[in-house]
Description:
Layout: E1 7-12, E2 15-22, E3 25-33, E4 46-52, H1 61-75, E5 80-85, H2 89-94, E6 98-105, E7 108-116
Antiparallel strand pairs: 1-2, 2-3, 3-4, 5-7, 6-7
Amino acid sequence: MDLAGRVAVVTGAGRGIGRAIEDGTVLGSASLVAHDMDTRMDLSPWLASVLVAPEHRRRGVGTALIHRVVDEARTLGFRTLYLFTPDKEALYTKLGWQFLERTEYLAQTVVIMSLAIAD
């Protein structure tokens, strides 16, 4: 089974959590949440908490997790998904995300991005 096939989404408590698991080891995770920035409550939902264990990076795990959360948001009927990142703008741009704004959040400069996901 390919990596995308091993990414599962667990939903509940107003969020979806994608986890990539290989041989019983969690490689990474990503979340679908209603709100991720308390300063931008007008934007919803968000791709959040994309984390991949250092030893599993550069293998497509993060990209597979992002795609799985995007698919879940699309299945739930959302037309646009948002994220913020302090340092991964290039990755998300490569995956089709669009720059919305650069702002200060939690004492760091971050970029807010969006992805149109309607069919």
